[in-house]
């Protein structure tokens, strides 16, 4: 079992059944959080095979067609939505059209954070030195100010679960 499978196992065992209260930055969060992994179908897996994506992201996607990670169960103001396969193109194109000066070849918006306007970006240009890197796109800041949060989706997912959905890059 590799790291992606282990992390998915932790999500399913500890976060998918019942909402959980957590501590963020030493303080108890009074709002329960939960993770939900969308099921996959044979049609989805066939579509996934045809996409050119970094290996660890593609591996994660072989287990789930999108997800809600550490979503605030009461108000929906916390957590991360990872887009399903049908949303990936639409959301990436939408945001690229809104901010043409900030996005470059190979940028894929793979998710959005609930409660603010931050986006999760995957670098998917195999010719680029940052292929597979994960960035957090800030709504008002130029590209140079975006957070580089990990060098792979596997690393990002592991850290995000380890920090129970807390934005570890901003603390």
TrEMBL record:
<dbReference type="Pfam" id="PF09346">
    <property type="entry name" value="SMI1_KNR4"/>
</dbReference>
<feature type="domain" description="Knr4/Smi1-like">
    <location>
        <begin position="50"/>
        <end position="158"/>
    </location>
</feature>
<dbReference type="InterPro" id="IPR018958">
    <property type="entry name" value="Knr4/Smi1-like_dom"/>
</dbReference>
<dbReference type="InterPro" id="IPR037883">
    <property type="entry name" value="Knr4/Smi1-like_sf"/>
</dbReference>
<protein>
    <submittedName>
        <fullName>SMI1/KNR4 family protein</fullName>
    </submittedName>
</protein>
């Amino acid at each position: 079992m590799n790291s992606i499978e282990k992390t998915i196992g932790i999500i399913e065992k500890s976060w998918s059944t019942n909402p959980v209260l957590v501590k963020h930055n030493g303080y108890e969060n009074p709002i329960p959080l939960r993770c939900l992994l969308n099921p996959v179908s044979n049609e989805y897996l066939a579509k996934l095979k045809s996409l050119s994506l970094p290996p660890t992201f593609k591996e994660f996607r072989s287990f789930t067609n999108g997800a809600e990670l550490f979503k605030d169960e009461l108000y929906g103001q916390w957590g991360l939505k990872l887009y399903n396969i049908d949303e990936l193109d639409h959301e990436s194109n939408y945001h690229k059209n809104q901010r043409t000066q900030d996005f470059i070849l190979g940028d894929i918006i793979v998710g959005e954070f609930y409660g603010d306007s931050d986006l999760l970006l995957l670098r998917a240009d195999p010719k680029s030195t940052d292929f597979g890197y994960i960035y957090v796109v800030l709504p008002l800041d130029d590209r140079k100010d975006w957070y580089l949060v990990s060098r792979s989706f596997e690393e990002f997912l592991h850290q995000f679960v380890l920090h129970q959905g807390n934005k570890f890059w901003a603390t």
